[in-house]
Amino acid sequence: MTAARRRWPPDTLLVRILAPGVFALVVLLLVSLIVHAALLRQAAERGAAEVAAHRIAGAVDAVAAAAVPDRKRLAQVLSGSDLALSWGDAPDLPSDRARAASDLAHVGRLAEVTREIRIAAGLSDAEHGALQDVAVSVRLADGSWVNARVLAVSLIAADDTAFRVAVGAVAVALLLCVALASRVSAAPLAKLARTVRHLQPDGDAPLPQVGGPREVRDVAEALDGALHRVRDLLRQRSLALGALSHDLMSPLARLKLRADELPDPALRRTVQRDLAEMEGMVGYVLAYLRGADGGGEPAVPVSVTDLVQVVVDEFAETGTDVEERHLNEATVLARPVALKRVLRNLVENAVKYGANPWVEVTVREGGVEVRVGDRGPGVPPEDLARVFEPFFRGDRARAAGGGSGLGLPTAKAIAEAHGGALELASAPGGGTIAVLKLPLSPPTSAVTPA
C-alpha cells in the first residue's frame, strides 16, 4: 500500500466494462417499475369505473324511465350508504379528474338510455385496497344528467411485492452475468500484467501464452517482441561493458606501474592521485552502467548487521570512526558485494560531506531499515530532489572535488533491484540521513557470512 490513497472505484478494464452495464440495467429496471406502476394504476382506475358503471346501470335505467318531476326524488330513494345518486341539468364531477368514458356504454342498458358518459377516477386507498370517491355522470336522451358517486370501490388486491422480488432477482442474476462476463474479458489482460511485472529483463524466460481475445494476444505478442529486443540490448551492453572494463583498466594499471618509476616524488604522488581518481571514476561508471543486475552476482541471505559492521571496521582501519547505534539483527536476500557497495557509499558520503557519522539497523513492519546520518550542514533543500540524478553533484561535492555523481544513483538502483528503496532527507538540527529499506529474508534461509 503506497502512501497515496488508492483510487476508488479503481480505473480497471473490469470496472469500465461493468459500470455501463450496471448503469443501463438500473435505468431499465427503474423505467420498468415506473411503467408497471402506471399500467397498474390505469388498470385499477378502469376496473373501478366499470364496477361503478355496473352498480348504477339499473338506477340510471329507472331514472330515465320515470317522469321528469319524479326523477330527483327517485334518485334520492335509489341512493345507498355507499352510493349517492342525483339528477340535474349538468354533470357533477371533480374537474381535475373528469374524462369521457364512451367505452362504458356497453355496461347494462346504458347505451340505450344515455348519450354521453363521463367518469372521474377515484382516489387510491392502499390501506383498504380500494378507490374512493369514484364519480360517474350519465347524460340521458333529453339532455339531463344522472350523477353518481361511489364512495369506495374495492379492488382485487394487486400486491406487487412478488413482482418486485422477481424483478430484483432477475436484476441480481443479470448483474452476476455481466460481472462474470466482464471478469472473463479482463482476466487475460490482468494475467498478462502479472506475468510482465515478474519477468526479469536479463533472464531467458519467455512470455507465456495468456489466451483471451485477439487484441489481448496481439498485445502479448508485441510485448514478447519488445522483451526479446530489450534482452538483446542488455546482452550487447554487457559485452560492451566487459570490453570497456578490459580496455580501460588495463592501461590504467600499466600507467600506475610506470608512475611508480617517476624520479620526482611530488610528480609521482600527483600522477598516482590522478590515476586513482580516474580508476575510481571508471569503477563508478561501470557500476552504474552495470545497473541492478549486480554483474551476475547471485542473491543469498546476508546478515545486514554483520555487513554494516564490516564497512564500519574498514573505515576504522583508515582512522575514521563511525558511531554504531542500535544494530538489530536482520537477514535479507541480497547480493553481498552490491549491497556492501551501497552501504559503503552512504557511509563515505556521511564521512566526506558531514561530521560525526553514525549508522543504525532497525527492523520494522516486515522490513529492515539501515539509517546512515551525520551532523554536518546537510543537503540544501533545492538539491534533495536531484541527488539521485546521474552525474549530479551539489555545491559542496563540487567544492570538495572528486566523485562522479553516480554513487547515489547506483546505490538507489541496487536498492530497488533488491525490492527496497533508498531515501535521503535533511535531519532536524542539521545533517543528512540516508534510509536504506530492504525486505526481510525468510527465517529458514542460511545466512552467508559477511
Description:
It is a single chain. The chain is of the alpha+beta class and 450 residues long. It has 3 domains: 13-161, no CATH class; 199-293, Helix Hairpins, CATH 1.10.287; 297-439, 2-Layer Sandwich (Heat Shock Protein 90). 51% of the residues lie in helices and 18% in strands. The protein contains 11 helices and 13 strands. The chain has helices at 13-65, 68-78, 110-113, 161-197, 214-259, 265-290, 304-317, 336-353, 381-384, 395-400, 407-417, and strands at residues 83-88, 98-100, 114-120, 123-125, 130-140, 145-154, 300-303, 323-327, 331-334, 358-364, 367-373, 421-426, 432-439. The strands form 3 sheets. Strands 1, 2, 3, 4, 5 and 6 form a 6-stranded antiparallel β-sheet that branches. Helix 5 (214-259) packs antiparallel against helix 6 (265-290). It is rod-shaped. The relative contact order is 0.07. The model is unreliable at 397-401 (pLDDT under 50).
